[in-house]
Amino acid sequence: MLGLLLLQVLASCLCLGHSEVVTSFKTACTQFFYAQTPPNDILRPKNAARICQFYENNHRFATMYDKTQRIPVYSAYIYKPGRGSRSDSWFVEPQLINKDYRKAMDTEDSIKREYKISSDDIGQNQAIDHDYRNLVDLDRGHLCPSGHQPDDDSKWATFTLTNIVPQNSSLNHGAWRIYEEETMPQKARNCDTTYVITGAVPASTNGRVNVPSHIWSAACCLEGTIWSAACCLEGTNPTRAWGAIAKNEGNNNQVTELNLGRLEKKLSKLYGVKDVTLFKNSCSQQ
Ligand SMILES: *[C@@H]1O[C@H](CO)[C@@H](O)[C@H](O)[C@H]1NC(C)=O
After folding, report:
1. Residue in 165, 170, 247 to alter for ligand 1 test, most ligand atoms within 8 A of Cβ
2. pLDDT by residue (tens digit) across 246-270?
3. Which of 47, 175, 188, 260 is the most exposed, fewest CB within 10 Å of its CB?
4. What is the CATH number of domain 20-283?
5. For residue 77, what are the β-bridge partners?
6. What is the model's pTM?
7. How far apart are CA 73 and CA 243, in angstroms?
């Protein structure tokens, strides 16, 4: 009996500690999605990696990554702006190089040293620092921005290149920044929990790293607490949702705000797929 129990504990530990590149967001990293439900599979690229972003002993947010385009499709996180600093270094994901490598994001230099590999090895399935150094007028645009995270470690964790897309500099410093820093706090006022999914639509490019055609974001606001029969006091009541989208290519420094349904329709068109669903039950009241 005791042996069986030990075996179970051991098995669950192995499973939990196994990997930060996970096989499904339906069973891992669910804490970053409203109702523990990721967007429907339609947004999954062919050569996908699901990363449960791990830094300083904690999971910080979730990223669906496209290993062919070398940009994220989306990052999902809980909006909790707080004080803290920005990282000076950039990180990459060791498990995109080799699934047996360590699970915490790290700098290229320390990964090269630890595993005796080159930048080329690191860059096979993901963007590396060098890719961004050559870009003109394009910033390292965060999908999960450091400003929406609560503390130093969570902010630093957003400085992984797996959370970054080449973003038009004027947009990054202009309208998108206003959306992140002014619109979001207004919209999320009175929300007890705000789940956010921010993504990028890949464009056709020749480079190693795709320069997305659009950048978009959606949020689901929960107020008050509800009693969940399955568990305990769990989450809160979904009361509203909203969305925003901006052209990154041929940008005119403009962010369009739109409701969730319209954003999902627009994304279905842009990705050329059927019926994108970002939040379970459209984040409406159940
Ligand atoms: C970025 O957008 C501005 C307009 O806001 C435009 O003038 C510029 O050419 C764009 N840069 C790139 C690299 O697309």
Report:
1. 170
2. 999 987 899 999 999 999 999 999 9
3. 47
4. 3.40.570.10
5. 196
6. 0.90
7. 16
